[in-house]
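Handout, section B. The chain below has 304 residues.
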Amino acid sequence: MTTEPLIKPLITPPAVPAPRALLELLKPITWFAPMWAFACGVVSSGAALQERWPLAIAGILLAGPLVCATSQAANDWFDRHVDAINEPDRPIPSGRIPGRWGLYVAIAWTLLSLAVAALLGPFVLGAAVFGLALAWLYSAPPVRLKRDGWWGNAACGLCYEGLPWFTGAAVMGSALPDGRIIGLAALYSLGAHGIMTLNDFKSIEGDRRTGIRSLPVQLGAPRAARLACWVMAVPQAVVVVLLAAWGAPWHAALVAALLAGQGVLMHRFLADPRGRAAWYNGTGTLLSVLGMLTAALALHGGLA
């Protein structure tokens, strides 16, 4: 005797992703970089927090769990075919985010990000619109900037470092941030181009098979690794020179020391780019972001 119901339901309830799968789609581990850059922007503004803590906290949430998470959801949706080759266990190719839920989450997070940005002022809203537009252009056809490593990495570097830094400074005042703040944000955005190249080493085979011309695919792993190191190092060297010229020799010396430490780690990375790209991301990149904070503190001190 069967225990199955004699009459089966005519309508199957729609599949809904589990909260854990949604959180994995939004990739909290990637939120650190823009949140840190935003904090550096707040520090570099020189403004006293005091009653502005709510604005600063809202801005940090905007930079990480909202705008950055939006870019991750959009990228995973439009990259689902590549991920099926490179990382089939990700939420979308594995089926843990079923149907078109990945796209719906990306759209919903975009709208939520814009709503929060609008509450933080016109400069913040403008930066958020620009960053979200780049996030969609990076992943979505027909533009799909990520198909070329030169353009795609530039867009990522700007969104991860420069825009959050600018936004953090803008949150603390009603005027356009100081030119020195914008200059440092631009330099660290350029350096982040190299950091983005490091992320491409893990997906060389899938990128090659699906027509994505990342820099490791275009140049080969050894040349791409050397380029990434130069692109990360040169902007930091310029920061050292600028800080010294602006009357902050101790800050300049600390950034120089952090850069020297990166040089030692880069030498080891270059010996095995594909095997040590992730390792360098967890070591050398840490020294770079400490240099970012050092530069921000120099500006916070009120340079002449």
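Note. The two ends are 88 Å apart (CA to CA). Compare this with the example in section A.
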